[in-house]
Design goal:
Elements lengths: L7 E3 L2 E3 L1 E4 L2 E4 L1 H9 L4 H18 L5
Antiparallel strand pairs: 1-2, 3-4
Helix pairs in contact: 1-2
Length: about 60
């Protein structure tokens, strides 16, 4: 594992990351795990994505 792909530790938990095109990319699931203490962060992320998609689909555009 390169240092560029080494996880970082935040509040005692590891967050996966990678360096690509001069930018850091972090694992959303790992960040959710740290911020929410959810026992199943992947399910939490899926619910957030689904709610955002439904809200976007329900928006009415006015010209």
């Amino acid at each position: 594992m390169d240092l560029e792909d080494a996880p970082v530790v935040f509040q005692g938990k590891q967050i996966r990351r990678t360096w690509h095109d001069n930018q850091w990319y972090f694992s959303v699931v790992d960040i959710i795990s740290v911020l929410t203490d959810s026992p199943v962060p992947r399910q939490y992320w899926n619910k957030v994505k689904n709610r955002a998609f439904k809200e976007k689909a329900n928006e009415v555009t006015v010209s």
